[in-house]
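Reminder to self: tokens first, then the designed residues, so the page reads top to bottom the way the pipeline ran.
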């Protein structure tokens, strides 16, 4: 229940007046907890004088503290947007924005951005490409690196409460959410939490449960000067804003999956893992189904709550959206079993392109984690992905170490219940046998593809690479022609044509 503690009509009238903003037209946006006034190149956000079970803005000191907290939290994610906390003051009978009189209200001042440039609206227009998805993951990883660790146990307890709160909301709307499905979701969610709780405690000890964004969906990311910038992080409850860094990321992943943007979601996951370079994140993939499902369930609950104040024309759309999120939550909490796919072939056959193209197809969502020998070799030698390595880095001993890393990481990923694609030459029978054994040891399905293309095609391709992790050139391609591949039991895929044709050949080879 909302408790209105103080009228703010005067303040809202002031901020709604073009005269307050030098004559600029004003657009007002109201939410349950705030009113935002857009004018010229600025935006002013005022906390509404309300009290909910989950937040309390009922007094001026509380609203000021909330404004200051919003500024502090969001400065980690969007310093270019959040400018400061500004008083609305009274001098005699006059109210002034930023004046020197007695403060009667406070506002967060922000730099205005194009409201049509949020990623949810870009997604509606089909404008989230793979380059933007890649940049989004880099941005989130960098922001997470700046966040502070929090004590794990309160958040772990809160997760169980979130599940119960969702269950209560679903139970209160039996015509919207089938009771038997809601009960099954609740039971599966609690069981998943029980399985990953020790893992999450260990993540907390590692400092990976942090005060994050807390509400990191596509609608809270804006494209500004070509860069995705997260904004509107949760400030009203540190516990709601807290979580494992992958729980923060899971909101974006769920949002992309719900919209059918599987390739973008897969790119976000893989780039994030590549940026953080934490092996423990591979183990934490075990919690990703719970994290994504919980995000979808919360979104279903919040969407359904909009029906209370919705007009008749909006109700059908709200019902459809709430039920879509609910179905997705039920699907995500019960992922299909993982698999391990290896993509081999001599340099220039297009292994990495094919692996990226296949990754989003391989469940569970948002697709397989990519492991690439060229990248792991650069990590092994402590160099940037595009920095060329000396010849000794490609000796037998170094190569054996790289393949060992690939097997170990692939094993961790599938053991966590997620799928992996390993991209390497796999010229030796022993290398192929060992990656197959890594799958067999963990009881997961294995498929192997070996790409083939003529020497002229391979030379042309390696010669055209720019900004790539591979160091292979025409000399390497010619040397590989002499390799004795031994007995090839993997499906051989003609990769001499376009990437699209190679992808079609590969999908045909992988078909049941």
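Designed residues (512 positions):
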């Amino acid at each position: 229940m909302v408790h209105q503690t103080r009228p703010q009509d005067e303040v809202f009238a002031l901020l709604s007046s073009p005269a307050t903003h030098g004559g600029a037209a004003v657009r007002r946006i109201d939410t349950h907890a705030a009113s935002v006034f857009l004018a010229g190149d600025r935006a002013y956000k005022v906390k509404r004088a309300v009290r909910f079970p989950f937040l309390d803005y009922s007094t001026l000191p509380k609203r000021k503290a909330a404004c200051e907290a919003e500024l502090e939290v969001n400065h980690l994610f969007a310093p270019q947007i959040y400018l400061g906390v500004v008083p609305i003051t009274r001098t005699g009978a006059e109210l002034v924005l930023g004046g020197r009189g007695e403060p009667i209200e406070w506002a967060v001042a922000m730099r205005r951005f194009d409201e049509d440039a949020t990623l949810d609206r870009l997604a509606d227009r089909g404008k989230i490409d793979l380059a933007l998805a890649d940049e989004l993951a880099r941005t989130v990883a960098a922001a997470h690196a700046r966040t502070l660790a929090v004590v794990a146990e309160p958040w772990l307890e809160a997760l169980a409460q979130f599940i119960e709160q969702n269950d209560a909301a679903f139970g209160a709307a039996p015509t919207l959410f089938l009771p038997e499905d809601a009960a099954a979701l609740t039971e599966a969610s609690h069981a998943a939490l029980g399985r990953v709780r020790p893992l999450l405690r260990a993540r907390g000890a590692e400092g990976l449960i942090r005060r994050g964004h807390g509400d990191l969906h596509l609608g809270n990311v804006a494209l500004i000067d070509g860069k995705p910038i997260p904004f509107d992080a949760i400030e009203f409850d540190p516990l709601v804003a807290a979580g494992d860094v992958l729980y923060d990321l899971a909101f974006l992943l769920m949002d992309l999956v719900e919209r059918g943007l599987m390739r973008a979601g897969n790119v976000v996951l893989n780039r994030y893992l590549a940026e953080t370079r934490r092996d423990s994140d591979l183990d934490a993939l075990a919690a990703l189904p719970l994290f994504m499902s919980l995000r979808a369930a919360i979104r279903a609950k919040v969407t359904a709550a909009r029906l209370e104040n919705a007009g008749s024309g909006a109700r059908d759309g709200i019902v459809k959206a709430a039920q879509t999120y609910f179905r997705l939550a039920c699907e995500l909490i019960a992922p299909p079993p993982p698999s391990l796919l290896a993509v081999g072939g001599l340099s220039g056959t297009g292994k990495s392109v094919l692996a990226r193209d296949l990754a989003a197809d391989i469940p569970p969502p948002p697709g397989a984690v990519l492991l690439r020998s060229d990248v792991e070799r650069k990590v092994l030698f402590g160099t940037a992905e595009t920095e060329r390595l000396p010849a000794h880095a490609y000796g037998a001993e170094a190569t054996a170490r790289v393949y060992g890393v690939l097997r170990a990481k692939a094993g961790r990923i599938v053991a966590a219940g997620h799928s992996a694609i390993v991209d390497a030459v796999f010229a030796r029978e022993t290398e192929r046998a060992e990656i197959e054994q890594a799958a067999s040891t963990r009881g997961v399905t294995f498929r192997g593809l070996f790409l083939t293309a003529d020497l002229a095609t391979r030379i042309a391709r390696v010669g055209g690479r720019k900004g790539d992790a591979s160091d292979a050139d025409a000399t390497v391609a010619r040397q590989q022609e002499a390799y004795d591949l031994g007995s090839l039991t993997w499906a051989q895929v003609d990769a001499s044509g376009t990437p699209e044709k190679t992808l079609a050949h590969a999908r045909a080879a992988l078909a049941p």
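The CA atoms of residues 344 and 426 lie 5 Å apart.
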